[in-house]
Every structure is written in structure tokens, then in C-alpha cells.
Amino acid sequence: MCGRFQFHFENREQKEWLKAYYPEMDSFHFLEGERFPSQSALLFVLEQNKVVPKLLKWGFQGERGNRLINARAETLHQRPTFQRWLENRCVIVTNGFYEWRKEGKRKVKYHIGKKDRYLYLAGLYNDAQEFVIITCAAYGEMADYHDRCPLVLTRDQMIVYLKLGTLPDCEQCFTYTKCQSDQ
């Protein structure tokens, strides 16, 4: 599962590149740091066969007022909530995501990611400019933290997913490096 993730620009050139798409914005600091459901995040979509950045809100507004933040890869095609958005594929850019693990009587927050490297999470977006993160069954070391995890794509898988909608098996996705976060 993915209930929070982290994002930081790695250099000034990345901010300047994004400014070309959003010239009306003075700053992108609001995108940085720990991201929570209902906040805006940076992601990529395919428009006219080009990968372009978008700023969208995390979570589909549910029919009962709830916010849906994740979508199971195994049931995407069966759930009416997601069926109509299967062509609206996106990739969420992160520096990692968080999971909590019970250790003794307390829960310890872990940052899951690769040091000095972005992770690309598969997602879907809707006409309300909201997105969800696609999850799959946890595998490898991730199973020690949670039974679900975001579907993390390599750069090559990201392009294939955006263009064709092909999702790889979880075991073929990017491998994680875990780090205990400061508490």
C-alpha cells in the first residue's frame, strides 16, 4: 500500500524545466517533502505522443465522500471506478514512499526507495485532475513491511506503460532499498 511518499527536486534545472510548462507559478516548493492524500504531486502523462509533466491531486473522490488513493493492479479492469480511466495512465515521480512496521509496542516508519534516484509509480488519473497509485502484492523484502506495495516502474517500463498500458509483473519491477527514517 502507499499512503505517503516523498519528493524533492534534485537540482535547479528540474524546476526550470517544470516552469516552462507552468509559467504562471512562481515556486514549486509546495511539491517538495512528504506528500499526503489530497495534496498535489508531480506526475507524467502522455499527450500527443510526448511525455509531459502534470500537477494533480492525490486521490479519486469516492461516491461516499471517501478518497481512493490506491488501485489494485489485479482488479483494475473489473472495478467500475477505475475501468473508465484505464486509458488515463500516469507515472508519479517520487524519491521513495513510506511504510510502517510494528516493532515491539510501537510502529516504526520506514522510507522505501533508492538513494539519489527517483522511483516511478504507475497510476491512473481522472477528469477531475485526481490520481491514484496502482498497487500489487508485496514481494521480496517489501512483504516484511506490508502486504501491498506501489507498482514501481523502471524508466523503460514507464514509457511502455504510458504508451501501451502494459503493466509488468511486480517481481519484474524496480527493487527497493529500505532505510529507517528519523522519528
UniProtKB/TrEMBL annotation:
The enzyme's E.C. designation: 3.4.-.-
Task: Specify the protein name.
Answer: Abasic site processing protein
Which species does the entry assign this protein to?
Massilicoli timonensis
- Is Hydrolase included in the keywords of this UniProt record? yes
Q: Into which EC class is this enzyme placed?
A: hydrolase
Which PANTHER family has this protein been placed in? ABASIC SITE PROCESSING PROTEIN HMCES (PTHR13604:SF0), DC12-RELATED (PTHR13604)
Q: Which family does it belong to?
A: Belongs to the SOS response-associated peptidase family.
Keyword set includes Mitochondrion = no
SUPFAM superfamilies membership: BB1717-like (SSF143081)
Q: Name one Pfam family in it.
A: SRAP
Read off the InterPro entries from this record: SRAP, SRAP-like
Lineage, top-rank taxon, reads Bacteria
Instruction: Please provide the record's keywords in A-Z order.
Output: Covalent protein-DNA linkage, DNA damage, DNA-binding, Hydrolase, Lyase, Protease
